[in-house]
Amino acid sequence: MNKGFFYYIYQKFKAMRNLFLFSLIGVFLILTTSCGGKYAATEKIYKKKASVFAADYKNNPAKVQLDKINIENREWIGSTNFGVRVPNYVVIHHTAQDSIEQTIRTFHSERAQVSAHYVIGREGEIVQMVNDLFRSHHAGLGKWGTNTDMNSSSIGIELDNNGTSDPWPDAQIESLLELLDYLKKTYKIPQGNFIGHLDYAPARKIDPANFPWDRLAEKGFGFWYDKNREPAPENFDEKLALRIIGYDVSNMDAAIKAFKKHFIQEDDDTSELDEEEKAVLYNLMLKYL
Q1: Helices 252-259 and 238-245, interaxial angle, to 10°?
Q2: Is the pLDDT of residue 66 over 70?
Q3: Which pLDDT does position 114 carry in this prediction?
């Protein structure tokens, strides 16, 4: 046998060895990316649900929806003009829990049936838990303007905060501002459509409590009142002003309390507005017109 034959055998062995090593690396990567990790089980559930939704979107409605209509003359003719859900609001919450890890566990609970698109920790870390284009379960029952299903039209953001004595760290607010900037630009969300959970559900919720809404308004996320403002006119209609802003005025007591928690932020749980508070409401109403 000549040297060429042994060199040929050597090259074949080398190629097989390299193939074996690459195969091992591939198996390792698959296992670590799809089966390993702290949240492997919940990620598997997420992917399964997403695939079911994808199949629903792909299905021919004639076989899924039209068949439910009791009319013989029916057919499916697909349009070329359609899109996915696009959020038009952002609703900000506080978690009322002790850590971001606890909130993640809550949002993994099938029994709790609650979630949000994003959770922001005290040190500014951002965790996305639901695709922007999907409907998360964060708002519940409520009303803002004519919108009674905020889950279907909004992004929900939970801030890691116990809702009582917790401060709002700069790192957390700065990360929130970065996220809001991305959402506003991406989905063309109007300035007035950045609200709190307490605004949408004033009879049920108080979050986010003692929140720096003025800092957000300075960057174009929601409105804030002017330092130099005119007093409200003598015939000022508080109910009309609150409705123009977006509050559900079917329960005026709850609407006024929510307005004061958002904009006045003093230790006052009454449903009465003094002259200064009326001036604030009047000033804000003009911004929403």
Answers
A1: 70
A2: yes
A3: 96
Q: Distance between CA 137 and CA 183 in Å, rounded?
A: 18
The 10s digit of each residue's pLDDT in 44-63 is 988 888 888 788 777 766 66
CB 139 within 8 A of CB 154: yes
What pTM did the predictor assign?
Answer: 0.83
| pLDDT score for 30 | 43
Domain carrying residue 125:
92-209
Identify the bridge partners of residue 126 per DSSP, sorted by sequence position. Answer: 120
Q: State which amino acid sits at residue 116.
A: A
Q: Which conformational region is residue 82 in: left (phi greater than 0), alpha (psi within -120 to 50 degrees), or beta?
A: beta
**Residue 81 placed within a domain:** no
Q: Where is 126: in which H helix or E strand?
A: strand 126-128
**147: helix, strand or coil:** strand
Task: Give the domain-ending residue among 209, 235, 265.
Answer: 209
Q: Which residues contact 287 (CB under 8 A, 6 or more apart)?
A: 192, 223
Known catalytic residues?
A: 158
Q: Which residue has the tokens 């029916």?
A: 74
Pick from 282, 187, 196, 179: nearest CA to 238: 282
Clarify whether residues 276 and 250 are in a common domain.
yes
Higher pLDDT pick, 276 / 33:
276
Asked whether residue 256 falls in the same domain as residue 178, the answer is: no
278 falls within a domain: yes
Residue 46 lies in a domain: yes
Mean pLDDT on 232-238: 97
